[in-house]
Design the sequence.
């Protein structure tokens, strides 16, 4: 099911599948900033990653000596959320644990996503509530696909990422199973990163040493832009499909990341794992800002 929000400058669209935002459109000229989820490239638009980011080793993990299975990025992005509230400038979706989720993730939770529209800013608020009788553990991340080639005259290479300040950052190397290795390679050296498909042949770029909390997608042909602001997040992924040609780039603020290729520990001890105590909540947020 689809829902909409709008104000004088932007119109937004959401779907209960994944509880994700699937459109940010500028009303003055119809410019679309979010990928539409065409399955020929990638069927998602801006999914939430929960209760893992990336992959667990061999699709399996251990908790208190028992083995469980989770697929890439967990189950929230392919789950049906309930719309639990809407006002003139906000909408909220919720996913609760079920018998199906407990088979692969043995924790009782409520995951809520609230979108708030103010002017040209969309704030995405996440809440993970512990409904269990024990502490719960999870990773959580964003995966918005920002549209490039917004008209027929543009190319992917016309776009670049603007960090606002000088960055000197290395990216983790990932293996063919998209697991993280204990090595990095130099990547960002300056205020911007030019986009080129060949730069993504090695898979997702993962940074945990950026000194900025804002990344802006710009292009050389006009002044239109979309920024993602992510204060307090641990790491950021940058991705477009390796085969090249996709008209989008994903800018992904994360808490946690895929397993290291040699990780053999407990789920709660994975790098970046978050928790919520009995009766408690984890909350965080990030923003989209249209330039």
Sequence:
């Amino acid at each position: 099911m689809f829902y909409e929000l709008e104000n004088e400058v932007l119109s937004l669209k959401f779907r209960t599948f994944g509880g994700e935002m699937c459109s940010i459109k500028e009303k003055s000229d119809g410019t679309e900033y979010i990928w539409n989820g065409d399955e020929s490239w990638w069927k998602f638009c801006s999914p939430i990653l929960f209760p893992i980011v990336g992959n667990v080793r061999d699709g399996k993990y251990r908790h208190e000596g028992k083995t469980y299975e989770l697929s890439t990025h967990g189950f929230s992005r392919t789950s049906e959320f309930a719309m639990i509230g809407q006002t003139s400038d906000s909408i909220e979706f919720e996913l609760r644990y079920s018998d199906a989720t407990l088979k692969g993730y043995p924790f009782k939770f409520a995951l809520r996503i609230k979108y708030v529209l103010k002017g040209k800013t969309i704030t995405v608020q996440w809440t993970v509530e512990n409904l269990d009788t024990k502490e719960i553990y999870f990773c959580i991340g964003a995966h918005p696909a920002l549209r490039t080639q917004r008209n027929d005259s543009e190319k992917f290479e016309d776009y670049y990422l603007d960090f606002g300040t000088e960055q000197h950052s290395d990216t983790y190397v990932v293996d063919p199973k998209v697991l993280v290795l204990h090595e990095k390679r130099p990547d960002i050296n300056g205020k911007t990163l030019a986009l080129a498909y060949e730069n993504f042949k090695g898979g997702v770029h993962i940074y945990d040493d950026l000194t900025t909390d804002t990344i802006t997608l710009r292009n050389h042909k006009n002044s239109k832009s979309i920024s993602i602001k992510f204060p307090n997040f641990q790491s950021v992924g940058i991705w477009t499909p390796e085969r090249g040609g996709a008209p989008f780039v994903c800018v992904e603020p994360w808490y946690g990341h895929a397993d290291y290729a040699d990780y053999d520990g407990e789920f709660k001890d994975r790098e970046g794992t978050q928790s919520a105590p009995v009766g408690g909540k984890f909350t965080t947020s990030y923003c989209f800002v249209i330039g």
